[in-house]
Amino acid sequence: MATVATRPFEHHVLDFLGYLEFERGLSRNTLEAYRSDLLQYGAWLAETGHDPLALGHPELSAFLSGLAAGRGAKPAVAPATLQRKVACLRSFYRHLRREGIIEHDPTVHLRAPRQSRRLPEVLSRDEVAALLEQPKGSEPATLRDRALLELMYACGLRASEATELRVADLDLELGVLRARGKGSKERVVPIGGAAARALAAYLRAGRPKLMGDRVEPRLFLNHRGGGLTRQGLYKIVQRYATAAGLAGRMSPHTLRHTFATHLLAGGCDLRSLQEMLGHADVATTQIYTHVSAEKLKDVYFQAHPRATGGG
Question: Which residues are catalytic?
């Protein structure tokens, strides 16, 4: 045991990554993520002088707490990334235990520090109306932008779903579209009247001029006639958000959050909302019940005469 413990930390990391690659068959992306996590852990060990084969649960918890809080100029690590780092450390120390390099696994009771879940930014109805009024005129790009914004709010589409949408996925007569979400799972989502009208105008007078002589199945096109990219979509949303006085308050995903929150506030049930958003688990959809509760509290404290102890 003593001779093994004198090996440098990097040797154990390489041995562990080799095990993951050749015996577990993990993907290149996962291996790279674990390598990055262990290099970060190694840098912390070098800073603090801890022996990776002798430390215990308190030291590992301190390492993770530091990541969760952020250090110096480094921002706090996102909860999902923190969970991955915990999984990496558990797997690493289990491997050392199996190999007989350590006698006790210090990660048995290791958990990621709890972080408060930040509620998504949601626009009010007036703010949405101000945003959707911004694309003015009948130029092809303006017709596209109006249709894009209306559709993302009307259907709660992710940015990737909007850019991958094809003309064949629309049925304006029935008022529905077919969206392809994560894992290429398809779902059918209703299209509201305002979005349907904006789409009809774009398909009639905007898209043909943008496409020119090209053949492109995707619905939303750039000025060269190719499919709009996620970066292009982001720039469009940011431009109109700035014009509507919402700069810094929204991204394309904000329209999805707003769609969900407004539907719940209007009486939509959680299961139907789950279907429209394409969530695999209703627990993911439940965050919007918290958003709605926060909005209700805001309204209450603004409107109730005795909410703040007055009256």
Answer: 158, 182, 253, 256, 279, 288
What domain count does the chain have?
A: 2
Q: Is residue 114 domain-resident?
A: no
pLDDT band at residue 239 under the 50/70/90 scheme: very high
Q: Is residue 119 part of a domain?
A: no
Q: Residue 93 in contact with residue 107, Cβ under 8 Å?
A: yes
pLDDT greater than 80 at residue 97: yes
Take residue 38 and report the two structure tokens written for it. 């262990």
- pTM of the predicted model as reported, rounded to 2 decimal places: 0.61
- Residue pair 64/113 in contact (Cβ under 8 Å)? The answer is yes
Higher pLDDT among residues 119 and 106, named by residue: 106
Please give the residue range of the domain that contains residue 218: 125-303
With the C-alpha atoms ordered 295, 296, 298, 302, is the resulting torsion angle positive or negative? positive
Same domain, 141 and 285: yes
Q: What is the 3-state secondary structure (H, E, C) of 61-107?
A: HHHHHHHHHCCCCCCCCCHHHHHHHHHHHHHHHHHHHHCCCCCCCCC
If asked whether residues 280 and 147 sit together in one domain, one would say yes
Please write the tens of the pLDDT for every residue from 183-193.
Answer: 678 999 999 99
The model's confidence at residue 140, banded by pLDDT at 50, 70 and 90, is very high
**Residue 278 domain-assigned (yes or no):** yes
CA distance 259 to 157: 9
CATH of the domain at 245: 1.10.443.10
Residues 6+ apart with CB under 8 A from 265: 292, 295
Distance from C-alpha of 218 to C-alpha of 164, rounded to nearest angstrom: 6
Select the more confidently predicted residue: 299 or 191: 191
